[in-house]
Here is the input.
Amino acid sequence: MIVNDSSMRLYVRFYARIKEEMGREAVNLNVKGNAMNIIDLLRILSKDKKMRKGTLIDYYLQGKLLIAVNEEIIRRNEEGKLILKDGDIIDIMPLPSGG
Amino acid sequence: MLSEGEVVFTPEELERYDRQIRIPEFGIEAQVRLKRKRALIIGIGGLGSIISIYLTRAGVGKLLLIDRDKVSITDLNRQILYTHEDVGKYKVKVAIKKLSEMNPYVDVDGVSDEVNENNVDDYVREADIVIDGLDSFKTRLIVNDSCVRFKRPFIHGAVNGFNGQVMTIMPLKGPCLRCLIPKEPPEEKHIVPVIGVTPAIIGTIEALEAIKIMTGLGEPLVGYLLVVNGLHGYFRKFKIARKPNCPACGEKR
Here is the structure.
């Protein structure tokens, strides 16, 4: 008998304005299942907390965030391909534009 | 007079650079290389003020500045090239005067212009290195694409509040700005808030990167995004991979 009770732990850190809006520096997530990508993660975090102007997923789709997994920036449009695994550290940062 | 190739230094000039020539890794060789280079700074606001001041004092050969704006009083909390009396004057005009006073041995020139798809190549082609003092990703990507076309090193920097980032682009050797940001995010509808220390930190790192590239010293931030968080006091380096299907530097470009 195969019991699928796999769950994984993800550590998500928020930066700058995102941290202020999320109201915390980081979150430890215990997620059931094992085929989750960045977009799925952003959806979960978006449910958790409404931001001032839309949700995290809105911000991301508008190109206002940079996301890194284990200190490597995830290429845009390729978020779906990267399957998160147990122990991953995810950094969610706003994209600064000023000069 | 000390001469190496076509580069000639007066004794006074050597004295001016004495303290950096004494750095063992730097020496007269790096000073000569610096003097041979033409650096282009696009945007001379918060970042550009800092970048231009340090490259001028370090002794780059030629500096070209581009900015369309006039000095506004709201610039003065961070754009340290300008003072109260400069409000209303063209930034480029003020900058040329002040930088030339800082170091008469640097050939400082500038154009009051807006960089766009039509003129970017004319500016980038003439430069050995291009440094980002811009405030919009639309223009940054236009400059990035031109730097890739002409294989010119491009130092990217951007700021917001107490935060900022730096990335050094060596076209075709590492990722370009479009590998990170394929297309521009929507134009910032609100005024970007910023305190002077942030562009000072980010601009200084950009100037350092430019000096490293121009002299061939050290390991530039190629393939990395350096993220600075001023309020919480950390610098963090993230890896960036080159994107094989990047519209600017990818295989099918």
